[in-house]
Amino acid sequence: MTELLTAAQMRAIEQAAIASGEVTGLELMERAGRGVVEAIFEEWPELAPGAGVAGGAAPSVQGTSPPEFSGQNEDGAHRAVVLCGPGNNGGDGFVVARLLKEAGWEVEVFLYGDAGKLPPDARVNYQRWGEMGEVLPLTPQAPPELAHRHIVIDAMFGTGLARPLSELGPFLRDICDCVDAGGSLMLQERWPYWPPVVAIDIPSGICADSGRPIFDEAVAERIRRGSSAACAAADLTVTFHAQKLGHALASGGFWCGKIVCADIGISSPASRTLPRSELVKMASDTGSRFKRNGHKYSHGYALILSGSVGKGGAARLAARGALRVGAGAVTLGCPPAAMIENAAQLNAVMLRKIKAADALNVALEDTRINALCVGPGMGTGPREAALLAACLEQTRPGASPGRGVVLDADALTLLAQNEALFAKLHAQCVLTPHAGEFARLFPDIAEKLAAPATKGPAYSKVDATREAAKRAGCVVLFKGPDTVIAAPDAQCSINASVYDRSAPWLATAGSGDVLAGFITGLLARGFAPMNAAESGAWLHTECALSFGPGLIAEDLPEELPKVFRALGV
Ligand SMILES: NC(=O)C1=CN([C@@H]2O[C@H](COP(=O)(O)OP(=O)(O)OC[C@H]3O[C@@H](n4cnc5c(N)ncnc54)[C@H](O)[C@@H]3O)[C@@H](O)[C@H]2O)[C@@H](O)CC1
Ligand SMILES: [K+]
Fold it and tell me: Which residues fall in a compositionally biased region of kind Polar residues (predicted)?
């Protein structure tokens, strides 16, 4: 688990470090540039000094070697294009240009903007580079040649992006084409050779707070015609001190390619990274995370409400998830007609007839039940609305015993349809909407999130989820590859399935039901709602990663023992 920063937080950390006398801005820029060069050599060791001829033999097309390119120029140097912008991101670019030149590279440097307006540290590095080489203007009319170089450095815009890069759109398209073409030194047999792209801090055009490309209608129209892009893409993105929200949210992970976070030596707790086992320790605020002693009911008892005949699969998946994640006992409550179907499918999970709300109230006289899950496959009729109302009543803060409740799927539809029900939400609830459910529950918030991002920082999924949690008065877990979890007090975390945690096979029928079950099971174990949602989402991704492609929802709970073992639980 890593702490992510907004651009403003990063600026504040940088300013505090400079103000304390710990380091100068110029030194930070030098470290940033060095971090980028080190990351390049780490990623492509064949480019590192002393690694020999890049790519070996000259690339050939149908048996002929193009005369212009032999992997190196006539002097045996690697070739880089460094694209600098008008701010400190550009300043980092000038440092990278200088360091590559010192390493023997042939470096072409372009500047987008007016050198006279560069901020002070960037200007110093512009001048330092000026003693080694020239700076050509980066103009959309005569864009730099990118083919047949070894690397392209995108140092145009970083965390300071404020508006669309309309003018640069066609050139950004060229950069995206480089990345689309493979951008790998392993592909030198291809001709023309398109180099890998390395973004400094974040690909230019992406908002560092939201992961969304910033663009206006004019650019959108050109994108539709295929002649423009809103942002650059990268094969490798090197950021500093800590990842930013935009690296994880929305399409940020897609545009960044691979991410490396370079240490620039700022002593701030903000970049703390927790080892995996810490997640479990952190979550064990009840002191009863592990089943070291006690009997089954002392490990929590979850009740999962199920739908009618033929609709019980979702609730059964949730029940299995709750049991595997550690609830001591799980009962599935279903309409009488669905008893036989469920009995034929369940063993460790117990069954109980719950015809209507009064039967639920009787069931909840069992004070051992401390967590509920309402919604998966449940239905949206009057019976279900009454069940939901009873659940909200029985779990309200202050009621005895204390109970948590997960509201998913059909429960979310009911909440969206019924203002009186929505008004009963409280701090013991966890809502787990996907994008469609979120839009039904919070249409105005979803509209803001869907509106084109025309200026930075753009409204983000974090902003949206926080607003939703505040309005609902409970934890909201907004699902997606960038799952965001927020509490009414603005606590927030992201469980992003990106980079080395990418698990696209998690988008499979029933996987959300298992997640609801995991969270319910953790509530039963005594986790607080925010903690249960965060830990459930994290374990859900871990199970998917552990199982790998081919996964179906049934596999997720079954993978938990392996994940727990790997955590040392
Ligand atoms: N904050 C930190 O701790 C560090 C920051 N560093 C670098 O500094 C960067 C941030 O620097 P800045 O705040 O100067 O921001 P940027 O370099 O991202 O760019 C800001 C400049 O671009 C202009 N601008 C914004 N959008 C524009 C657009 N669409 N068209 C034309 N001009 C536009 C702004 O007016 C401003 O002049 C980071 O991304 C990182 O690369 C590093 O040097 C290391 C330390
Ligand atoms: K950049």
Answer: 64-73
Which ligand lies nearest to the CA atom of residue 94 in the structure? Answer: 1
Residue from 88, 118, 245 whose mutation best tests the ligand 1 pocket (most atoms within 8 A of CB): 88
Closest listed ligand to the CA of 124: 1
Pick from 42-46, 273-277, 564-568: least confident: 273-277
Q: What is the pLDDT of residue 27?
A: 98
Q: Is the CB of 157 under 6 A from ligand 1?
A: yes
Quick one: pLDDT at residue 271? 41
Tell me the three-class secondary structure of 436-459, residue by residue.
HHHHHHCHHHHHHHHCCCCCCCCC
Token readout for 292 is 């070291």
Whether the ipTM is more than 0.85: the answer is yes
Query: From CA 172, how far away is CA 167, in angstroms rounded?
Result: 10
- DSSP secondary structure code for residue 291 in this structure: -
Cα 161 to middle of ligand 1, angstroms: 6
Cβ-based neighbour number of residue 489 at 10 Å: 11
Contact 246, 201 (CB under 8 A): no
Structure confidence at residue 52 (pLDDT): 58
What pLDDT shows up at residue 194? 84
Look up residue 297 and give its two tokens. Answer: 């009911």
pTM of full prediction above 0.80: yes
Residues annotated within a binding site: 88-92, 154, 158-164, 201, 204, 314, 377, 434, 479-483, 512-513
Strand partners, 431: 407, 476
Protein residue with its CA nearest to atom 29 in ligand 1: 163
Domain boundaries, the chain: 34-47+78-268, 294-451+462-567
Instruction: Please give the pLDDT value at position 295.
Output: 72
From the list 245, 258, 239, the residue with the least C-alpha distance to 36 is 239
- Binding residue ranges for AMP: 479-483, 512
In tens, the pLDDT along 171-219 reads: 999 999 899 886 554 444 555 578 999 999 999 999 999 999 999 999 9
Tell me if domain 34-47+78-268 and domain 294-451+462-567 are identical in fold.
no
Ligand 1: distance of its center to the CA of 464 in Å? 25
Nearest to 261 by CA among 36, 16, 13: 36
Query: Rounded to the nearest 10 degrees, how much is the dihedral formed by the CA atoms of 372, 377, 380, 381?
Result: -90
- What fold is seen in the domain 294-451+462-567? UDP-N-acetylmuramoyl-L-alanine:D-glutamate ligase (3.40.1190)
Q: Whose CA is nearest to atom 3 of ligand 1?
A: 14
**Structure tokens, 402:** 């204390």
Judged against a pLDDT cut of 50, whether residue 274 lies above it is answered with: no
Residue 283 reports pLDDT greater than 50: no
In the numeric block, the tokens 């070291």 are attached to 292
| Tokens standing for residue 108 | 């072409």
Beta strands in 89-248 (DSSP E): 106-111, 135-137, 151-155, 197-200, 236-240
In CATH, which superfamily holds the domain spanning 34-47+78-268?
YjeF N-terminal domain (3.40.50.10260)
Q: How far is the CA of 200 from the centre of ligand 2 (A)?
A: 4
Question: Mean pLDDT over all residues of the chain?
Answer: 90
